[in-house]
Write a structure and sequence with these properties.
Elements (H helix, E strand, L loop, with lengths): L4 H18 L11 H5 L4 E4 L5 H14 L16 H21 L4 E4 L4 H11 L4 E4 L7 H7 L7 E8 L2 E9 L2 E2 L1 H9 L2 H8 L8 H10 L2 E3 L18 H6 L4 H24 L5 H4 L8 H11 L3 E8 L13 E9 L2 E4 L7 H24 L2 H9 L7 H12 L5 H6 L2
Parallel strand pairs: 1-2, 2-3
Antiparallel strand pairs: 4-5, 5-6, 5-7, 8-9, 9-10
Helix pairs in contact: 4-5, 14-15, 15-16
């Protein structure tokens, strides 16, 4: 299902050609009507980004004009910007209500941001909705494994936190503690040698190693990466500081957008050529993608340990509100999702999580539920680059007057 008919036709053609090349018989239907699409569904998989990537870029340009930089809060110069989140939360409301009416036994598989805020919001509002948030940021741990030269099948690990703030607390290789292997890689110069050739804003870059030295647990994926929070802000005070830590948020985001454009161009080219093999563009290789594994485990009762975003109902992470989202390992099967109590996070890590991740989301959700413009100002005031209430109010006014935010402007009167 897609609201864009041209895009929908392209995707349907892609699916049909792909299936034909593989000899698969697929009962494929296409619609621009979401309610028709999800009628009697078993799974509803949502990847929608209502304002699109251009909505990020337009807002970020305005924020830069008002003195904001990458590295601050998730709610301005990042992919959980408050103007994006308004439309996403409204969309999730509509999806949840449709599911409960048209396919109440379906699992809602939520992949679109803001996973942390939306998981918290949906769990509080819709008590009978079966859902989980999935994020691929956790897979950054396998970059650590690969760079250290470890064989993945002998690695055992555990991570926990909240979305875009995930920490590796347990790490063994062939039954032995593997953190000393990481320590040796750093002390023997392996890290510095890697930084000579790796791209900027790398999962194993200087910023990640510095945080590991500070806290004794390793930041995974988006925890300190520009793809998510780009936290902490003190690594991003100015261009000179960013260069010292081999950080380039602007270049990283431009590169990510460029990759998406390049991928789209390759698909468009393949679709235009009737003789082209789609399976050469998208090789049919079996993988352990968590979306597939998650749905397969629930549908066919194949128990698997999968990292999910769910409410902290069983106090999985002590200190986080029990009706707030957490990201952690869970056993997924026909019985549903059973969270696994992880190793406790160090107190400084937990404290920063509550201040920099949990608190802003609570302020944002309160503002959203009350339609409070003043609440949004309070949210902007929590960003470390905000110097005054006047600055926050000016940013908000410009965002509300931005193209695409007309509905939001009416809502936050």
């Amino acid at each position: 299902m897609d609201v864009n008919e041209d895009r929908l036709k392209t995707v349907v053609l892609l699916c049909r050609r792909y299936a034909d090349e593989l000899g698969f018989k697929i009962d494929l239907h296409a619609t621009t009507d979401r309610r028709v699409c999800i009628q009697d569904a078993d799974f509803v998989v949502d990847l929608a980004l209502i304002l699109g990537h251009d909505g990020y870029r337009r807002g970020w340009a305005i924020a830069k004009k008002h003195g904001y930089r990458f590295g601050g809060s998730q709610h301005i110069m990042h992919d959980e910007a408050f103007w994006i989140n308004y439309y996403q939360l409204k969309h999730f409301d509509e999806i949840a209500e449709d599911i409960l009416e048209l396919c109440p036994n379906a699992w809602f598989v939520m992949l679109a941001n803001p996973v942390m805020a939306a998981t918290t919001y949906l769990a509080r509002k819709y008590k009978y909705l079966k859902f989980a948030g999935l994020c691929h940021g956790y897979a950054g741990v396998y970059d650590v494994v690969k760079i250290l030269g470890l064989e993945r099948e002998y690695v055992n690990l555990q991570m926990s936190g909240v979305n875009h703030y995930l920490w590796l607390t347990d790490f063994t290789y062939k039954g032995e503690n593997a953190f000393p292997i990481l320590d040796k890689w750093i002390s023997d110069g392996g890290a510095k040698k890697f930084w000579e050739t790796c791209e900027a804003s790398n999962y194993m870059g200087p910023k990640a190693i510095d945080l590991y030295k500070r806290y004794g647990v390793f930041p995974i994926g988006d925890t300190c990466h520009v793809g998510g929070g780009s936290w902490p802000f003190w690594y991003h005070n100015d261009a000179t500081v960013e260069a010292k830590w081999k950080e380039d948020p602007t270049g990283w985001w431009e590169g990510t957008s460029g990759m998406a454009d390049k991928w789209q161009e390759e698909l468009d080219k393949a679709m235009a050529d009737k003789n082209a093999k789609i399976t050469e563009v998208c090789p049919p290789q079996k993988n352990d993608d968590k979306i597939i594994c998650f749905m397969e485990s629930l549908a066919f009762d194949i128990p698997r340990m999968i990292y999910v975003n769910i409410p902290n109902t069983h106090n999985y992470i002590n200190g986080v509100p029990m009706d707030f989202e957490v990201e952690l390992p869970a056993m997924v099967s026909k019985s549903g999702i059973q969270g696994i109590h992880p190793t406790a996070l160090p107190k400084p890590v937990l404290a920063r999580m509550l201040r920099d991740r949990v608190a802003p989301v609570e302020v944002e959700l309160d503002a959203y539920q009350r339609g409070s413009k003043k609440g949004l100002v309070d949210l902007i005031m929590m960003d470390p680059w905000t110097n005054s209430e006047k600055q926050a109010e000016a940013l908000l006014e410009d965002i509300l007057n931005m193209k695409g935010c007309e509905q939001m402007k009416q809502y936050y009167k």
